[in-house]
Amino acid sequence: MQNNQQKHNETKKLRPGQLSRPKNLNLFTIRLPINALVSILHRATGCLLFLILPLILLLVQLSLSSAEQYQMVVNILHSPLVKLILLGVAWAFFHHFFAGIRHLAMDIHWMTSLMKARYTSKLVLVFGAIATIALAIQLWI
Amino acid sequence: MLLELLTKRYPGMRAWLTQRLTGLVMAIYSVLALLRFFILQPESYEAWLSFFQPIWWRIASLLFWLALSLHAWLGIRDVFKDYVPNYGLQMVLQKILLALLWIYLAWAGWLMLA
Ligand code: HEM
Ligand code: HEM
Q1: Rounded to whole angstroms, how far apart are CA atoms A70 and B10?
Q2: Cα separation of A77 and A59, whole Å?
Q3: What is the CATH number of the domain that holds A133?
Q4: Exposure of A139 by Cβ count < 10 A (0-12 exposed, 13-18 middle, 19+ buried)?
């Protein structure tokens, strides 16, 4: 039996010293296991949180600077579209938070077997969802 | 032993441990902030001002932002290392990142202490 790697090596003419390896960069052929999903979301949410830092500082500055500015910030935050965006940002934070805690747990060798890791991945997603829903209830009711 | 990992002799371990410790600091502050918010329920300008009045809270907030700066520096730098193969461009992006984080830190410091 030949495996794909061997087939690949035979069909491709290599320059001396060139490494042969199948390149498979079609992202749609890569399955995303739940641990990978939590991992890539941790990265994506970390980047998103970084990007909104100036907005956070601006909101804090305005809200503290005077009663009028405070009222303006409150009005902005109470508009339905902004509330929706806020919820998205909050989810990003909750996910990064819980996935971060999961990282810390694994770093001290808790929950590191594949079964347990898959379980804690689900927990991270569920906790993120619950926290976001709880906030949504706070914001709309 | 653990603190030895924070010295320059182990740059990789140092970055790794710093990322964990800053993560921990931010996690603790976030829980505290949420608790304080739900206990004090600052629903007016005056209440909001007094939320940020205690000096210990300002210092805690600044400590949080300091941890955040270190954390984001290491975190986003890792992302650049992974996805920006062009070394020159990567260095440029790193410098922009560093400049932004310094500006934000100064901004946060001014907000909390001025
Ligand atoms: C589609 C699947 C995958 C995705 C989306 C993914 C995503 C990521 C991301 C975003 C990171 C950096 C952040 C973090 O540690 O959470 C990472 C790190 C890492 N991944 Fe994956 N990964 C995948 C599959 C794999 C597989 C199959 C392996 C090993 C067999 C693997 C091994 C690692 C290792 C060792 C690190 C740590 C690298 C370091 O700390 O420098 N990953 N992965
Ligand atoms: C709330 C507390 C937080 C905790 C517990 C936490 C935890 C962590 C941990 C443990 C890592 C390391 C992951 C790895 O090695 O792959 C990490 C990565 C990262 N964090 Fe955080 N974090 C927190 C808040 C933040 C904030 C506020 C930001 C935004 C400025 C942020 C941005 C990042 C970025 C960009 C990475 C790199 C992601 C990667 O390499 O895939 N984190 N976080």
Answers
A1: 47
A2: 10
A3: 1.20.1300.10
A4: middle
**Block mean pLDDT (10 aa), chain B, length 114:** 82 94 98 96 96 97 98 98 96 98 98 94
> What domain range includes position A101?
33-140
Q: How open is the CA angle B23-B52-B58, to the nearest 5 degrees?
A: 50
A30 lines ligand 1 (CB under 6 A): yes
**CB–CB contact A104 B72 (8 Å):** no
Residue A107 domain flag: yes
Residue B4 has a pLDDT of 83
Domains: count for chain B: 1
pLDDT at A1: 46
Q: Would you say residue A62 lies in a domain? A: yes
B73: domain CATH number is 1.20.1300.10
Asked whether residue A4 carries a pLDDT value surpassing 60, the answer given is no
Using CB atoms, which residue from B27, B48, B68 is nearest to A63?
Answer: B48
Residue minimizing CA distance to atom 22 of ligand 2: B23
Q: Are B79 and A43 in contact (CB under 8 A)?
A: yes
Give domain status of residue A14, yes or no: no
Flag whether pLDDT at A126 surpasses 90.
yes
Specify whether the CB–CB gap between A96 and A13 falls below 8 A.
Answer: no
pLDDT at A9: 56
Residue A136 lies in a domain: yes
Contact: A64, B23; criterion CB under 8 Å? no
